[in-house]
Structures are given as C-alpha cells and as structure tokens.
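pasting Recombinase zinc beta ribbon domain-containing protein for the record, 62 residues
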Amino acid sequence: MVVVQTIKKRSDGSRRKYRYMKCSNYRRSGTHGCVNHWRVLYENVREFIIQRLKENRLLSTL
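structre below
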C-alpha cells in the first residue's frame, strides 16, 4: 500500500487535499498487478492503527 495524494478545486476556488491508501501493484500495473483497487482514506487507516495501539497499550503519548 502507498499513500496517494490529490487536490480537488472547489467551485468557490478553495482547494481540498485528499490522501488515501492504494495498492502499489495496482498503481503500477493496473488490474494485471492487483485485483484489489479500492482506495481507503489515509486518515481512517491512521486513526484505526492509533486506536489499536492504544488498546494494546503500545502507544500512550497520543
């Protein structure tokens, strides 16, 4: 998995940055490299990992 970033311009001129995780094989080779090409928002993955680390008492500083 790799983090991919894109910036979308809104109708009011402001910009919104999206970061998401994507299969690196799919990114390089398309459907021949990987059948799983769903994007997952980076923030969701990050929060999930932090929560699991806290539950297992492996992370106490956040």
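The chain has one domain: 2-55.
The first strand starts at residue 2 and ends at 9.
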